[in-house]
Amino acid sequence: MENPDPMAGEPFGCASRADGSIVINYHGAPVTVLRGRAAERFNARMAGADAGAAQQLMARATGNFKRGNERDASRRG
After folding, report:
1. What is the mean pLDDT of residues 38-60?
2. Could you tell me the end-to-end alpha-carbon distance of the chain, in angstroms, rounded to an integer?
3. What span, in angstroms and rounded, lies between the C-alpha atoms of 3 and 66?
């Protein structure tokens, strides 16, 4: 059985604020706010990212979402 892609529906979104901070949303609800150097690094990484890569970057920035390798590691024993 093939696992569906959790990023297919593009659940993440982000918005920049006037103060330079970035709000990352998950299904429209704010999950985290990046400020200062973290916001600058995030903007630099997002600059050349396509839609799929942008979703992965936002998921990683939140720190609360699996990266997809947990199940594979448990199978290896």
Report:
1. 94
2. 20
3. 14
Nearest to 52 by CA among 23, 24, 11, 3: 11
With CA atoms as reference, report the closest residue to 62 among 17, 16, 14, 19.
Answer: 14
How many distinct structural domains can be found in the chain?
A: 1
Domain residues for 45? 27-65
pLDDT digits (tens, 9 = 90+) for 5-35: 666 678 999 999 999 999 999 999 999 999 9
Whether residue 58 is contained in a domain is answered as yes
SS3 of the chain: the string is: CCCCCCCCCCCEEEEECCCCCEEEEECCEEEEEECHHHHHHHHHHHHCCCHHHHHHHHHHHHCCCCCCCHHHHHHHC
Query: Is 33 a member of any domain?
Result: yes
